[in-house]
Amino acid sequence: MKKSSKVIPLDAAAICRSSDPMAVRELLTKIGDKWTIFVILSLDLLGGRARFSELERAVPGISQRMLSTTLKNLERDGMVIREVFPEVPPRVEYEMTDLGTSLLRPTQGLVDWAKANWEQVRATQSKYDLR
Amino acid sequence: MKKSSKVIPLDAAAICRSSDPMAVRELLTKIGDKWTIFVILSLDLLGGRARFSELERAVPGISQRMLSTTLKNLERDGMVIREVFPEVPPRVEYEMTDLGTSLLRPTQGLVDWAKANWEQVRATQSKYDLR
DNA sequence: CAGCATCCAGGACGATACTG
DNA sequence: CAGTATCGTCCTGGATGCTG
Questions:
Q1: Are A110 and B110 in contact (CB < 8 Å)?
Q2: A26-35 mean pLDDT
Q3: Is the pLDDT at A11 greater than 70, yes or no?
Q4: pLDDT in the model for residue B1
Q5: Least C-beta-crowded within 10 Å: which of A21, A64, A101, B124?
Q6: Minimal CA–CA distance to B104: which of B37, B6, B18?
Q7: Which strand C bases fall within 7 angstroms of a protein CB?
Q8: Is B66 touching A (CB cutoff 8 A)?
Q9: How many CB pairs under 8 A join A and B?
Q10: Contacting residues for A95 by C-beta, under 8 A, at least 6 apart
Q11: Cα–Cα distance measured from residue B120 to residue B15, given in angstroms and rounded to the nearest whole number
Q12: Is the per-residue pLDDT at A79 higher than 60?
């Protein structure tokens, strides 16, 4: 499983004016990984509740392994709840928790920023790369 | 708008209701790396302008290599401007751009969320790990 | 002072195959 | 259907040493 057991340096504590700058780093690391935001946002768009295969279809390109891993991490963090139905064939549903939902708002802020500014970022990059 | 040169994965397009979900992923990947937010926030706290060594001290634990790399990426993205003063010993100052500053607001949203909720996340993780 | 060059370890991720 | 197991690759980032 994913855990950052390395208690090391830093912290730029004053920087975040936060009591726990590591919390910020860990949070950013999580939603910064390849699939987490897409899974969260997809689950939200699907009404806050969906089964594995629905998410698989909602997030094109994700492999079963990564969807499984991502959901397991989200469950461990308390962002989603996993519910197993003892049927054949098996059915498993994932539901957003209030905690997970509450993360949606700040996340949306970044999504909006990207929508508004990413074109400019790309342009700047191109210019930079010219030399 | 959409290119088919790379028929790859993505995009959970509807998900983000964004024209470019890759922008979101790239942005998250950037600020999700190990040092970027700390450098950005530090630079802001230092008044939006600082030299290399100041940032080095403001972000405890960062290596010269990573600070250099991070700043170069930020410069490439147009978040900071690098100014070299032809002196001996050399002096280099980094200044936040408006673009970089504008990113601060949504970022702060995540910082606040982490401050408010991370304790709960850790508690949930501990419970999860017990079984 | 403000870096760059090099080397290296660990983890993230993809592809594929198998299962209750 | 909803995963797990295994393997291999690439990339991030740490450590160290050198330089204009």
A1: yes
A2: 95
A3: no
A4: 33
A5: A64
A6: B37
A7: 1-6, 11-17, 20
A8: no
A9: 184
A10: A48, A49, A80, A81, A83
A11: 27
A12: yes
